[in-house]
Amino acid sequence: MPPACQTANINASMGQHRLSDFPKDGAPSNKAIPFNIKVYNCPAGINKVMYSLVPTSSSASLNDNQGIIKLNPGSTAMGVGLQITDDSMVPVLLNTSLPLKDYSSAGGNFTVALNARYFKIAGGSGITPGAANTEMTFVMSYL
Fold it and tell me: Can you give the residue ranges of the Fimbrial-type adhesion domain (predicted)?
């Protein structure tokens, strides 16, 4: 088996939001929740580590370029999706390999700093409150 880094499942708790957190249709909530994906035990000798966020079949992409995914079928909220951004609030491209920042071929532990925020779907019939859950797969590749 080729050398690989390790990571654990991440659960980003979004908490409660108010309708006033959503400025308009087709725009993100003004409330972002920071979370980190810890990448650890990377062996020495890997030149480059890439990662991608891949929507699942139950939480499909709404917009790969804007990092927006649908809520899963168990969600009761309506009118929103979830947007993932980097630590500078720039949307993360979904289904795209991105370099792991600060990676060193010496190996070790690294962090992918991200934010999650709800996104009011344009042309929707408004927001219906309720549970708003989604999931993605974190994929790493090595060069």
Answer: 3-142
